[in-house]
Design a protein that fits this description.
Order of helices and strands: EEHHHHH
Mean pLDDT: 83
Distance between the termini: 67 Å
Strand content: under 5%
Radius of gyration: 30 Å
Shape: elongated
Largest sheet: 2 strands, antiparallel
Helix content: 40-55%
Length: 181
């Protein structure tokens, strides 16, 4: 009993038993029986219709959305830096908070801007908002120290109170915002 030609499922039908059996190695499926895909698998990686090459994401969002998405997390992160730096007088977690501020600012700018705002502009907005928030928070902490009787100039205060953390905060926030936007 000879088996018939292979069918679409890659099995051969044994006519006598009426059952399917797997193809033997080297057995070729005839062209008339082969299945073909409607589209090539690589098409899903192609450019989405209606989006700009320079931006990623769907074509929604706006410049206003990117601004709001960058400023709100920057304000929240700046407030957290002030609370940790002045009343609690903690220096160690400030770099991690600045890093989180940068990531949140970048993601907010990306989500708010979507595909309508190009990546370069989103990154500029996110980095600017993150750096301004960190610098304003450092100045507010210094002003609070002056109100409590301190008499050091800003650079001297930053070096004495926070050491290298004062320099690492804006660096971490800026790099994280740039990478996340």
């Amino acid at each position: 009993m000879e088996p018939s030609a292979p069918d679409q499922a890659g099995t051969a039908r044994d006519e006598a038993a009426g059952a399917r059996r797997p193809l033997d190695p080297g057995e070729v499926v005839p062209t008339a029986v082969r299945r073909t895909l409607a589209r090539a698998p690589s098409e899903r990686y192609g450019q989405v219709h209606g989006t700009d090459e320079r931006s990623d994401g769907p074509p929604h969002g706006s410049l206003r959305g990117a601004l709001i998405g960058a400023i709100v997390p920057a304000l929240v992160g700046g407030a957290a830096l002030v609370v940790l730096g002045s009343p609690l007088a903690l220096a160690e977690p400030l770099v991690l908070v600045a890093l989180g501020l940068g990531i949140a600012t970048g993601l907010g700018a990306r989500r708010g801007g979507g595909g309508a705002v190009e990546r370069r502009r989103r990154r500029m907005l996110a980095v600017s908002a993150a750096l301004i928030a960190v610098f304003v928070a450092e100045i507010v902490v210094w002003r609070l120290a002056l109100a409590q009787g301190g008499d050091l100039a800003f650079p001297d205060y930053e070096l004495q109170a926070f050491g290298p953390v004062g320099v690492l905060q804006p660096v971490a926030a800026g790099i994280a915002a740039w990478a996340a936007a």
